Amino acid sequence: MPHNPPTMEKAFNLLRALPRVCLANLKDHNWRKTTKRGRAQHGGDKHGAGNKGGGQRQNFMRIGYETGNNPFYKRFPCENYYRGQHLKRQYPPLSMLDLQKMIDTNRIDITKPIDLVAIANTGLYRMFPDQHHFGVNLTDEGADIFCAKVNLEVQWTNDLVIAAVERCGGIPIPRRMIPPPDAIEFYTDPAKRGYLADPEKISQERLVLAQKYGYELPRIEDDPDYEMLTERKDPRQIFYGLEPGWVVNLRDKVILKPLEEELLKYYNS
Amino acid sequence: MLLKTLPKLQIQNCRHIKKYSTAIVAQTNQNEHLQQRKLMFPPKYQKPRQVWIENLDTIDERKLGLLDLHPSVFAVNPRIDIIQQNVRWQTLYRYVSYAHTKSTFECRGGGKKPWPQKGLGRARHGSIRSPLFKGGGVAHGPKSPTTHFYMLPFDVRLQGLTTTLTVKLAQDDLHVVDSLEIPAEEPSYIEELVKSRNWGPSVLFVDVADVMPRNITAATDTIKHFNLMPAYGLNVYSMLKHDTLVLTKPAVELIEDKLLTHLHKNDTRFVTSKYKVNQV
């Protein structure tokens, strides 16, 4: 049975007896005052800042400056380790712990398939396409405690994460609209549960992974949520319920669908 | 601290005041009058507060039923400092100081050195408009216009509204009525009603829409201390400026709905981000 905390009840009873709170009797919290410099034995000294010069005026040298030497950070003109870094595809990480937390706090509805839209709609994960963000990298931190049965679609992950999801009876699918040439192998690999992989080979890989990590694979055919768990997007489809080529008019709340044969052929190719 | 200073006052006064109280902790058995209402985001750990629904169509008070109020809005920690911060913000964000003083070089004259630097035995000066002179400029004086605009954090603004509603309810200064319909448009009716119900000199009536019933509009038009306000204009300053706050039942529901929506918001990035002057 819910009850009000006794302190709160006391406060309300007290308020009832006290004069009316109005504009004339408000008072702010007693914020801590900024401390003054000490006035004791060394109060008249320089307080560690020295006499005259940059130290006293807090005019410090810029970071890395070595008073005339060739600074360390300028000695090596480039680091090849980072060559082409600005062109590489980025997958901002999301841990399984974070995902579980989003599910536990009702930010993600697990009765529906989870894709990038569902994760971004939590407001806790952001994508910046202009910074070459290509999707979610689901990392294995928290894989031990992940216990939600989900139909999951992420763009990058590893086999431990796949195992943790499939152990709970769920299914992840890495997925992308048009994979770049160097990612085609990843998205057609049944071991990575690629969305372009052969479904029969995926079933086989599910068994292989279960034996690798030693868990019993739940039979999703007998699951009451079978429909939800096996729901897949078309390889050309971005959003659930919306097909490519449709125009969504948010102002009039209507969806415009193409009828022209040429357009239909283009979008379904 | 308050409890330490006033233990006796609390016990003595509570018994006396409870007779006229509108705020009641949920214990009643009057189920026939109870206005069943499903609270949004049902509270897990706190009981709902309850308030009588009163009428305005007769001068004598009739109680029409009890209304459940959400404890996250009407029973929060009554922090006076949060209220103070809100009132300070409301008075300051629109305040522009027009105080103005002239500096040395904005004053007329004073270009010539008043007397030679040496040889007269007088203090050295370069201008008769220096801050040391009578009629001279002012050093670091106020300049017009100085704006005092700042934005209070979103959570503090939200907390301010819930805290003030809580305080008003706890002090029996919040009344809920079924509607703002009154039978007469003469000011005397509403004046007498307020006087007989001991609602204090100033009253703020709040309804959902900004188009109020004709009679109450006409009746309160000439009385400066009875004011009407739509629910979207409800604010901490106005609630405190008036002794009594009278909400209609639909207004209570709307206010509760809006505040709970923001209290349970998942995505607070936009509202908690830094305020930009040209933001929408």
UniProtKB/TrEMBL annotation, chain A:
Q: Might you name a Gene Ontology BP term for this protein?
A: translation
One Pfam family named in its UniProt record: Ribosomal_L27A
Please verify whether the record's keywords include Ribosomal protein: yes
Q: Name one GO molecular function term.
A: structural constituent of ribosome
Q: Where is the Large ribosomal subunit protein uL15/eL18 domain?
A: 94-170
Q: Name one GO cellular component term.
A: mitochondrial large ribosomal subunit
Region annotation Disordered: where it falls in the sequence = 32-57
Tell whether Oxidoreductase is among the UniProt keywords. Answer: no
Q: What InterPro entries does this protein's entry cite?
A: Ribosomal_uL15/eL18, Ribosomal_uL15/eL18_sf, Ribosomal_uL15_bac-type
Keyword set, alphabetical order = Ribonucleoprotein, Ribosomal protein
UniProt record similarity statement: Belongs to the universal ribosomal protein uL15 family.
The name of this protein is Large ribosomal subunit protein uL15m
**Which species?**
Exocentrus adspersus
Which lineage do the record's taxonomy fields give for this organism? Eukaryota, Metazoa, Ecdysozoa, Arthropoda, Hexapoda
TrEMBL record, chain B:
Keywords tagged on the record: Mitochondrion, Ribonucleoprotein, Ribosomal protein
Gene3D superfamilies on file = 3.40.1370.10
Xref: Pfam families: Ribosomal_L4
Ribonucleoprotein as a keyword? Answer: yes
- Quote the cellular component terms of the Gene Ontology held in the record: mitochondrial inner membrane; ribonucleoprotein complex; ribosome
Family that this chain belongs to: Belongs to the universal ribosomal protein uL4 family.
Among PANTHER family, the record links this protein to: 50S RIBOSOMAL PROTEIN L4 (PTHR10746), LARGE RIBOSOMAL SUBUNIT PROTEIN UL4M (PTHR10746:SF6)
Protein's UniProt name: Large ribosomal subunit protein uL4m
